[in-house]
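Lecture 7 notes: from sequence to structure.

We start with a single chain of 213 residues. Read the sequence below before looking at the structure.
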Amino acid sequence: MTGIDTHLPAVPTSALTAAAIRERVGRALAWTPEFHTEVRFSDRPPTEAAVLVPLVEREGLTVLLTQRTAHLNSHSGQIAFPGGKVDPEDRDAAHTALREAQEEVGLDPALAEVLGTLPAYATGSGFIVTPVLALVSPQATLVPNPHEVADVFEVPLAFLMNPAHHRHHEVEWAGQKRHWMSMPYVQDQHERFIWGATAAMLRNLYGYLRAAP
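Now the structure, written as tokens:
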């Protein structure tokens, strides 16, 4: 670990409500994402993908995340947003994200209100990922697909939007220096190690919610 961003301000609680986020998405912001492209470690052709960033409308908004099963070929065991590659029949990124969320965790698309998208994020494995921001009803019943998802859990949005929980890391790999972030969250004495692309997209969400109008 190379640092923790305790010097940066957290997103105010007043900006972390469903109404505040809806209002922000409706405004034009002069904002550039902090993270957009990872160092490539795969020669595969770029593949378009989308993930759902599900904000569950509880008393305080939470972020719904999954832990991928250990046997998957790509990103096995990692914590991720529901999502996957764009299929030819998908209308747009939101359609992809909602379809994948239904396949992975059984989320009924009718219980998700899509707000908009954040800038695409290019992973080292060759995926060009569009994050789709959505509000999810707390009445949603989730049924994880055991072939893809080992666990589903929620993290308070306020925790993730506080840089005191944002850790920086660097590693020398294949002759290149790679910078990545983590946001470890302890739940019931079990650490959820949020890192990599998921942490980078959450950091971009932090920047988006902090950006001046």
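The two ends are 33 Å apart (CA to CA). Keep this in mind for problem set 3.
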